[in-house]
Automatic annotation (TrEMBL):
CDD domains attached to this UniProt entry: INT_Rci_Hp1_C
One Pfam family per UniProt: Phage_integrase
InterPro entries recorded: DNA_brk_join_enz, Integrase-like_cat_sf, Integrase_catalytic, Tyrosine_recombinase_XerCD
Keyword Nucleotide-binding part of the UniProt annotation: no
Keywords, sorted A to Z: DNA integration, DNA recombination
Name the record gives this protein: Integrase family protein
Alphabetical GO biological process terms: DNA integration; DNA recombination
GO MF annotation: an example: DNA binding
Transmembrane helix as UniProt keyword: no
Stretches assigned to the Tyr recombinase domain: 122-287
Amino acid sequence: MEIRADRSDLPADSGVLKTVKLVDLMIRYRAEVTPKKRGGKIEDSVLAQMLRDPICKLPLSQLGTTDFARYRDRRLACVAPTTLKRQLNPIQHMFEVAKRDWALPITNNPIKALRFSAKMRMRTRRLRPGELHRLLKATRLCRNRAIAQIIQFALATSMRRGEIADMQWKDLDLKRRLLTIPVTKNGHARTIPLSNDAVKALPRRCSIEGRVFSMTGNAIHLSWDRITERAGIDDLRFHDLRHEAISRFFELGLTIPEVATISGHRDATMLLRYAHATSSAVFKKLNRVAA
């Protein structure tokens, strides 16, 4: 499949593609397209990492699906298949832009024929006993102590890292305990209720450019990596706090529509993928029913 796609990646007249390397395409895409995207900062970091790979030195005349298959195999040693597929989405879009808007004679997109034979894994990672305490203890050595409040706020609201980083004071109604999130991943704004824990996690009204927390999404990501390493906690991502929060909402007895109002999910199936009850919680409920 990948070899056949390789042979049809380029048109017969491919002279111009001999002078353009993948790195040239990516640099232009980062400069002209990525900044216009809502998640541009994160995408820029992903592309910057990929630019260090040898595949970027290849001219487009020699570049095909088999080259990306070798890149895929290298990266799968470091990241999950779902993560890699997400990271390659802008590369696939880049080839479409190059063909449509930059007049490069590319007939087929080499990423479209790329296959991921590895079985997709659905994460079920939740906080284990004592891990939250270890995380918060590790934040004491951070230069920006806001990360401790951000962790607690994420657990209280199930909000995504980017949503927390972009929070504005003007979108907070502390009197009614409501927060409006105008820009979300699925494109639909939502207003969520703030629990006592969420309100306690808010910083005092001191911000940069109206933002509630003084950390960007990338700064949170970097700080999280240092904290988990310092705490000696493996395989725990910041996004897992969203899994934890949603699972806790269900354990509190909230209904699917109520949890969806907070999390922003518009599909019950997707929402339930985030909900993972602990054995201890189920055990307590079973005993309560039996009693």
